[in-house]
Here is the input.
Amino acid sequence: RITILVLAITNFALFAVALRLLFARERRTPLPTRVMVDVGVVISCLHVYGLATAPLKTSAVEIAAALYVVAAALFTWAALSVRGRGFKLAYVPNSPRVIFTGGPYRWFRHPLYLSYALAWIAGAVAAMSVPLLFTAAAMIAFYVGAAYREERQMLRSAAGDDYRAYRRQAGVLLPKSLLLGDRSVGSV
Here is the structure.
């Protein structure tokens, strides 16, 4: 139980630190962003509580631990790759001039969102909890909505043509190379 709690708290702490250190600051944070962050804090607490109190099965905890480790590793890799590049929080308007395709962005268009989703799913798996599965689904819905909103913004930006080409190479949350054979994507 202690191990799974430490893994969950580590993931949520990484996400919280990124809010302050990774993303470009805005004068006014849009309402959907504030709601997503506030709901995320509440759901993080529910997940930790669920993990602390639910009966745990060894096989489920092992799967969840692996998901938490993958989530933290992917998040750290993506965060280090984009640090200082002016990435913005979800739902903040953005018109990039260049598309970043380095690090895990080579294979996934939204590796940060994927890492968040893996962490939420891990909690539900560890506790084998339907309520935690619903909270995971709610958070994943925020990320999917944000991802598609960002994609529309990028397609309308000065880098729209580059983004169209990038979409042909990198999957939204799964690498296209796994599904379609290996295709190289350059790094900007």
Notes: DSSP finds seven helices and no strands in the chain. Confidence is low (pLDDT under 50) at residues 181-188. The helical segments are 2-21, 31-53, 58-82, 111-127, 130-156, 160-169, 176-180.
